[in-house]
Amino acid sequence: NAGVMQNPRHLVRRRGQEARLRCSPMKGHSHVYWYRQLPEEGLKFMVYLQKENIIDESGMPKERFSAEFPKEGPSILRIQQVVRGDSAAYFCASSPAAGARNSPLHFGNGTRLTVT
Amino acid sequence: QKEVEQDPGPLSVPEGAIVSLNCTYSNSAFQYFMWYRQYSRKGPELLMYTYSSGNKEDGRFTAQVDKSSKYISLFIRDSQPSDSATYLCAMTPTDSWGKLQFGAGTQVVVTP
Fold first, then answer.
1. Which of A105, A107, A114 to mutate to test the interface with B (most CBs of B within 10 A)?
2. pLDDT tens for the 116 residues of chain A, in order
3. CA dist list (Å): B40 to A39, B34, B46, B56, B76
4. Which residue of B has its CA nearest to A49?
């Protein structure tokens, strides 16, 4: 997990509030991926971004969820009007390139979101 | 049916034993196969990575891929208590790099 930094590590929000999760990729990595891990389930792909571009958001819920990776600064996963079902661990991963056989994903330690 | 099936365990073995983990999958397009280790409250840590069929060895870890059977395995030799963790298999087609399909994970407990 060295290098992929996620914050906060823990986030508690009341129903209806907004949650903002941040991810700084490993140095030299320009590809960022967000995954969600629900209790007792495996990780599920949400979105794939490069700087200033969303490449694949096929795993994102259609409403309330958005992601960005600006030219400067970390990638942000935003969840508006959170509900209890959003409680999960959200992991960010990065890679130096897409489609390269020698650039598998490296994950951060995640943000654990609890919605009360 | 899930695209990737993995027995959740827990799998309990004595220290020094061989740990045998496996996953089955249904999508014949998968070409890249990975094993991650995840300790409690931590992110997944990449252990092994193989492309297409075959075996790969790295220290105490051996990964096997049998594409004809859609079956992958991870073996851990001389297991240690520090190997106690959840092991996740993951896979992806060539053109969906980064969009990994994960198994649910197998919890392994190595007892001293």
1. A105
2. 458 999 999 999 999 999 999 999 998 888 999 999 987 778 999 999 998 999 999 999 999 999 999 999 999 999 999 999 999 999 999 988 765 556 678 899 999 999 99
3. 12, 19, 15, 27, 19
4. B98
